[in-house]
């Protein structure tokens, strides 16, 4: 599978998970999956359909691998631990979204699911001035944000359209300034989830010429 084919496959999986309600940013999810799986070449992704380096077990299934971690000083060390094993890639993406919704320290990411860069920031480890972890993040790698964001930029993931509409079409959005109506054209419609579990509709618009 070529890199572009992998990107297309991961994008479809991320989009499908988001349509089912996963509070994720599709470009970031794809970039994370690429980084964590080494472009789909890691044993973890090939043998376990685990594209996000998710530890633990899934429905009683897991497999042990050696993985690299970083301490508070950014120094590397290696541990052998269990990683979740999924029957399909779809299960992996669905679980990825469930983890973000369930764990409180990813609340900022969930709230910013429609803003890729802010979503990624919400997945970072939060440290104090001395480097002590205040809130865990997706990875202990101190350069994780830069690595993921580089993949997003280098492969034009922000330029792809997130088709997450649920059969709702809008021909015109009307906004009033006082008593004067101003017409806008919708550019992008996204249906997401709020922290209280309620649905939210986000519409990106531009002035109608």
Which percent bin holds the helix content?
25-40%
Q: Give the end-to-end Cα distance, rounded to a whole number of Å.
A: 44 Å
Principal-axis shape: globular
Number of strands: 7
Compute the number of structural domains. Answer: 2
CATH architecture of the largest domain: Orthogonal Bundle
Your description of this structure?
The protein is about 35% helix and about 25% strand. With about 210 residues, it is an alpha+beta fold. It has two domains: about 5-160, Lysozyme (Orthogonal Bundle); about 175-205, no CATH class. The strands form three sheets. Strands 5-6-7 form a three-stranded antiparallel beta sheet, with no helix packed on it. Strands 1-2 form a two-stranded antiparallel ribbon. The protein has a two-stranded antiparallel sheet with strand order 3-4. A hairpin with a 5-residue loop joins strand 3 (about 125) and strand 4. Helix 1 packs across helix 4 (about 90-100) and helix 2 (about 25-35) crosses helix 7. The longest helix has 17 residues, at about 5-20. It starts with a helix and ends with a strand. Residues about 165-175 have low confidence and may be disordered.
């Amino acid at each position: 599978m070529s890199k572009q084919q992998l990107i297309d496959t991961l994008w479809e999986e991320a989009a499908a998970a988001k349509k089912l309600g996963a509070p994720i940013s599709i470009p970031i999810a794809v970039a994370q999956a690429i980084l964590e799986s080494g472009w789909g070449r890691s044993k973890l992704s090939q043998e376990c359909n685990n594209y996000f380096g998710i530890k633990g077990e899934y429905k009683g299934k897991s497999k042990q691998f050696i993985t690299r971690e970083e301490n508070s000083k950014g120094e590397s060390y290696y541990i052998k631990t269990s990683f979740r094993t999924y029957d399909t890639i779809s299960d992996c993406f669905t679980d990825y979204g469930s983890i973000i919704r369930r764990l409180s320290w990813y609340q900022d990411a969930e709230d910013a699911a429609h803003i890729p860069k802010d979503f990624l920031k919400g997945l970072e480890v939060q440290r104090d001035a001395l480097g002590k972890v205040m809130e865990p993040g997706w990875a202990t790698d101190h350069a994780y944000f830069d690595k993921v964001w580089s993949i997003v930029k280098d492969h034009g993931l922000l330029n792809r359209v997130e088709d997450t509409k649920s059969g709702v079409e809008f021909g015109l959005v009307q906004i009033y300034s006082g008593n004067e109506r101003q017409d806008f054209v919708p550019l992008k419609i996204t249906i997401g989830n709020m922290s209280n579990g309620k649905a939210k509709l986000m519409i990106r618009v531009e002035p109608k010429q």
